Amino acid sequence: MDYLAIADRSWPLLRRAAGLHAFLYRVSGGLIGHRVPFAPPMLLLEHTGARSGRRRTTPLVYVRDGENVVLVASKGGHPRNPAWFHNLSAHPDTWVRIGRRRMAVRARVATPEERERLWPRAVEVWPGYADYQARTDRTIPLVILEPR
C-alpha cells in the first residue's frame, strides 16, 4: 500500500477536519475536542508561520510529562516533518489550550535521551505512532513544551 500517496491525497480533507475540530474546541471553551470518544486527549497548539508570520492553530495529541507537554511530529509517517514543527523551530514561544486552560509555553526538541524515555509513553497514548515510525526513514521528533 502506498501510504505516502494516500497521505498526500488526504491532507486537504484532514486540514478541513482539523479546522473544524479547532473551531469547536475554541468556541466550546475546551468542552468539545479535548476528549473525543475512542481517541487520545487533544490540545490546541497555537503557532506562527515560519515564513508567513500568520497565526495558526492545530489540534494535536499530547502526552503529559510532569509540568511539560510532549508532542509527536509524526505527520502520519510522512518523510517530512509537519509544518507546525518548522513553525515552532522558528518561533518557539507560543500557547497551547488543554481543555479550558490556556498556557504560555516554550517549545524545544527532545534530546535523544529524552526521546528514548518518552517515545514508549507516546506509543502508549496513541499506538499508531509505532506504525508511523516504521513507515518513515526519519526519526520522528518529539517536541517538549515547557511552561513559560
- Quote the average pLDDT: 90
Which segments are poorly predicted (pLDDT under 50) over 5 or more consecutive residues?
A: none
The fraction of residues in strands falls at 25-35%
Q: What helical percentage do the residues reach?
A: 25-40%
- Give the neighbour order of strands across the main sheet: 2-1-5-6-7-4-3
> What is the terminal separation in angstroms?
43 Å
Q: How many helices in DSSP terms?
A: 4
Order of helices and strands: HEEEEHEEHHE
Summing up helix and strand content along with how strands pair, one would put the structural category as alpha+beta
What is the general shape? globular
Major beta sheet summary: 7 strands, antiparallel
- How many β strands by DSSP? 7
Report Rg: 15 Å
